[in-house]
Amino acid sequence: MATYPGIDYSGTGATCNRDATNGIRYGVISTGSLTECFWDSVENDYGEATCPKCGNPAEEGCIDDEPDYPDWTDHGSDYFCRDCHYSFNSENAFPEEALGWSIDDGEYKVIDCLDTDAMIILAPYYTYAQFCSPCVPGAGNLDTPMAEGVKCYCFGHSWFDGEQAPYPVFRVDTGEEVQS
């Protein structure tokens, strides 16, 4: 366990990367530290539908619903672009690779962070950890737990192999430690 808390790069009095309602900071952890089942909870984000021809926002629907446009080019019936008079299917409206991912399951709110990390922005649990580097100012680095560190949201024990978190886990609502 770490003994140096690090530097709070968010600055004195800053409120970034923390819950405004209770002051608990966001927790950041490498996705490699979590059980593979973590990915079963993730919802990929492909962004908004766009026209593959011009890149403008696409509208959901079929050109058959647009009789005022007889010069439509029909390449599918899921989406259409008013600017190009072009229709297309959903596989052409979104990128092949996800733009990001998130978890919002009613218990946790987690977003992707720094390509390989997860940022926990709401959870029923917290722990104490070293401050994150300047990359996520004000947040806690869950890969470096610290008894006298910053209070931050964390995953519970079930998110780790062997159902044992690498840090002590406390309930937000009671402050009681949760055993694995």
Integer tally of domains: 2
- What global shape is seen? elongated
Beta-strand percentage range: 25-35%
**Would you list the SSEs in sequence order as H and E?**
EEEEEEEEEEEEEE
| Major sheet | 10 strands, mixed
Tell me the distance between the termini.
Answer: 18 Å
What is the tally of beta strands?
14
Kindly state the mean pLDDT as a whole number?
A: 91
**How many helices does DSSP assign?**
0
User: What Rg do the Cα atoms give?
Assistant: 22 Å
Stretches with pLDDT under 50, minimum 5 residues: none
**Estimated structural class:** mainly beta
Helix content: under 10%
Can you tag this structure with a few keywords?
180 residues; mainly beta; 2 domains; 10-stranded mixed beta sheet; 4-stranded mixed beta sheet; 0% helix
Describe this structure in words.
The model has no long low-confidence stretch (mean pLDDT 91). The protein folds into 2 domains: 27-45 and 100-178, no CATH class; 59-92, no CATH class. It is elongated and about 70 Å long. The chain has 180 residues and is an all-beta fold. It has strands at 27-30, 43-45, 59-60, 73-75, 79-81, 86-88, 100-104, 109-113, 117-122, 125-131, 140-145, 150-153, 169-171, 177-178. It has no helices and 14 strands.
